[in-house]
Amino acid sequence: MNYRDPKTLSEREWSEIASLQLVRDSWGLDDDADAGKLLASVAYGVKFDFSPQTMPNYRGDLFLLCGDSVGEPLVLTRDKQGTLVPA
What we know:
- It is built from 3 helices and 4 strands, in the order αααββββ.
- By secondary structure, it is of the alpha+beta class.
- The protein has one domain (11-86).
- A hairpin with a 5-residue loop joins strand 3 (74-78) and strand 4.
């Protein structure tokens, strides 16, 4: 598989994304244990193994998340501690 090919998000990744306050606020999610499953049912999400030539200090996960309306996607990467953060 090419590193530029999009990858399907795992259930664990959906849950991790749904735990972010920014995502909860954007999608109106409650502090529900199944927030990841709910988010996966109402949003589009993909993950890439990102290695940009313009950002030589970053190599890792890049998540794109968008709702059911056309607009700017939410872009997430991981910080040095591995925590998801808006890009």
